[in-house]
Design a protein that fits this description.
2% helix, seven-stranded mixed beta sheet, Immunoglobulin-like, mainly beta
Length: 517
């Protein structure tokens, strides 16, 4: 009980339900509530701080924070300042939206009564500011009453503090590459950086390799912190790179094996991003960088020709079957089956290369095994010239029969013909080194049949899983003169400048040299 001038008044709560409260209104507010006993309609926003240069969700609420009901809330308008984007209503009525000089004005129909300590509506927005500072983000104007029939006007505003923040960025190069043979290497350089004024904490580089790709752990530097297979078949690689200070950067070399494909050429997209936190705990993520690689299927083909376009009864037809395969992956258990044409009769023992005839199925089968060296020899017909005799291979390993050098894109005018080693680097487009080798076959007589050719090389230095492809050269060159820029020390290569695909036959892959450690 409170005594004023000898009279007692009830002090029961809630204040709005006390029938004697109007007599003690000023006294209560001054002594107990500091004004909170009345209705109080205003704004609440969260969070209080956001990092600069980032788009961050911000919640704007209209609340009655007083201890009395706010009656007949009307003439309600909420203004969102420049830098704040209206997304929609999380709760409450839908407003009429208008714009004025970068501001967004939300006008609402009368809300009616809003009980004490109640949220009347909630607005979803985002805020983004390019520099640090304190910015006004929202203002509300409204009229309302209370249970004591008093009238109020409110004009309330809120601001937000923008703090220094990191700006994560990442690139992936080259943006395009290929065509690359299925199973061969694709290589990228991931360059990450923090372009903001504050440190990026707990930074993580995340790369998503498409389904079928696999990381080459010998050539990738540094190795990822984690590797996770995802439900769609892709592979998520993550590198934890710690704290990146303002202006800091780093690089990652990612090398992957391309997938096996069954159709024509396919283009795969690989994506990478950099994320981390700022000092306030907000997660920041760079724009996603992407790169594409075109993968071509193994070049397998089978060609069949016949010696006569027209034949009379009794003529002999000679069919020639030519298999080709240009992939870097050796084939195993290779079988060719051919059906003897209708109205023809197989000539006994006429199939070469170990072909066998089956009378029941009228087919000829060749079991070719593997295209790993040594390749099964061909059995030639009577009268064929061999040089040397079968079983006595011709060895070409002297200075008189072999010339060799290599060319280097990093040193385009240097000749290496006098060196005793050949350096190659086929996977890195900016560090290419190509070996050039020529064999003198003038000792072979005309009409000689080459059953097989084996090139043996000794590896003196290796970067594991290194694969060199062997192609036929079409541009003449000299051992003492060839450089990246010229084929003989003075004359440009066939393309009119530096070495290019015009100087060899890219459609004819003779084989590959694979070193796996």
């Amino acid at each position: 009980m409170t005594f004023i001038g000898g009279h007692s008044f009830a002090t029961s709560l809630p204040y709005s339900g006390n029938y004697e409260a109007p007599y003690l209104r000023f006294f209560y507010n001054a002594l107990f509530f500091n004004g909170a006993a009345v209705a109080n309609v205003g704004l609440e926003t969260s969070p209080a701080t956001i990092p600069m240069g980032n788009t961050v969700p911000v919640t704007v609420k209209l609340r009655n924070t007083g201890a009395s009901t706010a009656t007949f809330v009307d003439n309600l308008a909420i203004t969102l300042e420049p830098g704040v984007t209206y997304l929609g209503m999380a709760s409450g009525p839908t407003p009429t939206v208008s714009y004025d000089g970068g501001k967004t004005i939300l006008t609402f129909a009368p809300l009616g009564d809003v009980p004490a300590e109640t949220t009347a509506l909630q607005i979803n927005t985002t805020a983004s500011y390019a520099s640090v500072g304190v910015y006004k983000i929202a203002e509300v104007t409204a009229t309302y009453g209370d249970v004591f029939a008093e009238s109020f006007k409110t004009k309330d505003c809120r601001d937000i503090t923008v703090t220094p923040a990191p700006v994560p960025a990442i690139t992936k190069t080259p943006p395009t590459q290929g065509p690359v043979l299925s199973g061969d290497h694709a290589e990228w350089t991931l360059t990450y950086a923090n372009n903001g004024p504050a440190s990026l904490l707990n930074a993580v580089v995340e790369d998503i390799l498409p389904a079928g790709f696999s990381i080459d752990t010998e050539l990738t530097t540094p190795l990822p912190t984690s590797s996770t297979s995802l439900p769609d078949g892709s592979l998520r690689l993550r590198w934890s790179v710690g704290t990146i200070n303002s202006g800091g950067s780093g690089t990652i070399t990612l090398v992957a094996h391309t997938p096996r494909i069954t159709g024509g050429n396919e283009i795969f997209t690989n994506s990478v991003k950099l994320s981390g936190t700022e000092s306030g705990g907000s997660t920041l993520t760079s724009p996603t960088a992407t790169a594409t690689v075109e993968v071509t299927k193994p070049a397998m083909d089978l060609n069949k020709t016949v010696n006569l376009a027209e034949a009379n009864p009794g003529n002999t037809l000679t069919y020639t079957i030519t298999p080709t395969y240009n992939d870097v992956w050796p084939l195993n258990n290779v079988v060719i089956t051919d059906i003897v044409p209708t109205y023809t009769t197989y000539v006994a023992n006429s199939a070469n290369a170990g072909g066998t005839y089956d009378l029941g199925t009228n087919t000829i089968t060749w079991l070719l095994g593997s295209n790993d060296p040594p390749v099964p020899a061909e059995t030639a017909g009577p009268g064929t010239a061999y040089c040397p005799a079968p079983g006595s291979p011709l060895v070409l390993n002297t200075d008189a029969t072999v010339v060799d050098t290599y060319i280097d894109i990093d040193r385009p005018t240097t000749n290496y013909g006098a060196l005793t080693e050949i350096f190659t680097r086929p996977a890195n487009a900016t560090r290419l080194k190509y070996g050039l080798i020529r064999f003198d076959l003038s000792s072979l007589p005309a009409g000689a049949v080459i059953q097989s050719a084996i090139m043996t090389m000794t590896v003196s230095a290796n970067r594991g899983n290194h694969i060199d492809k062997v192609y036929e050269m079409v541009t003449p060159w000299t051992e003492a003169g060839a450089t990246w820029n010229t084929r003989n020390g003075s004359t440009p290569w066939a393309g009119g400048g530096a070495f290019s695909a015009a100087d060899y036959n890219p459609a004819l892959l003779l084989g590959s040299i694979s070193v796996k450690v």
